[in-house]
Amino acid sequence: MPEGPELHLASLYVNKMCDGVVFSGPVIKSEVSKNPEVAFTCDSFRITATSRGKEVKLTLTPMKSDDDGKRRSKGGQADQHMDIVFRFGMSGYFRFTSEDEVPKHAHLRFYTKEKPRRVLSFVDTRRFGSWQPNGTWQPDRGPCIMFEYKSFRENVLSHLSDRAFDRPICEVLLNQKYFNGIGNYLRAEILYRLNIPPFVCARDALEGLELEDEFEDGKPKGMKREAGDVLRLCHTVPLEVVSLGGKGYDPEKMDYSAFEAWLRCYYVDGMKSVRDHNGRTMWFKGDPGPMAPKGWSKRKLPKKKNPHIQKKSFQREEKLKRPRKKHRRVKPSQVHVKRKIAASKLLQVNTWDYVTFKNALFFL
DNA sequence: CGTCCACGTCTAC
DNA sequence: TAGACCTGGACGG
User: Fold this and answer.
1) Does domain A149-363 have CATH number 1.10.8.50?
2) What is the pLDDT of residues A296-308, one digit of tens each?
3) Compositional bias (Basic residues) at which positions (predicted)?
4) Of the listed A54, A57, A247, A345, which one is catalytic?
């Protein structure tokens, strides 16, 4: 499931499924999970969810007790609400089912009050996910790329002197201190859209971007749909996945084909891939950029298919038949404006190629 | 059967 | 900069 869009879709799922549902009793943890017990029990409570970047927060809210209008706390009854903050690891998701349809690997379960009972489960096959009772958003994670765009942007641009930005842009995009919500498929899709070589220095790619995103309030007339710089795409590309609905990257789901068709680069036939310095596979097209790991050209094109990503050939063909967008080249006259401003404008140009990119760096 | 790979953190040498 | 943490699907022999 899990990059920013999937976490957000999970929160929407919980709110939709649990709307008006009354839960009861203790919260049950599987034997095998090493995560903490959730010491919460209540005769009647509700569950709501919110997301921020790559985290989801469940809020358990006791319903008002009718006992003389007084709050009770006897028998371990909760009278306070409780927040539980989840991270999904590689395989986490929520599911709301009948009691006998609880999925395998449901490691934390919330039971409804009615009979027959239903269950909200946190399912996590690989158990890399975690939860924290009475938790808060992890303090070292930056603002949400989707729902805190302005502060996300400010957080990046005001910390470009941080050594973290010495690294290749593709690796920095996975740094949750600055890009809370970006994961492996999103970084590939974002850099691909702008033709930014993945192993170009992050600071070089980000320096000179304006603090104010000029595309923020509606697009200037005549602007293409995808217009925007890298930071804006870190916002809009994940939102595209949210708008696909369904569950994004979840192969078990019926509407997964919509997500497959949406991918333009990640695991797409004909694209290149390299292991980055952290051993994660970076998918891209064209030049890898100056900071590519040594020996990248020996990259193996995967002979094996990703079990999760198997594009049906008819879908591929459909995609190829789509009219290709005309790639507008930047006219040379546009290129010799001034310094950082020139570069920043260039960085906001919709269609990138490496020549454009190098020109931009040159004028810095 | 065995090897490789997967949407992500973590912490330890 | 390695590993550790896990399960399970695809593919190779």
Assistant:
1) yes
2) 654 444 434 454 5
3) 296-313, 321-332
4) A54
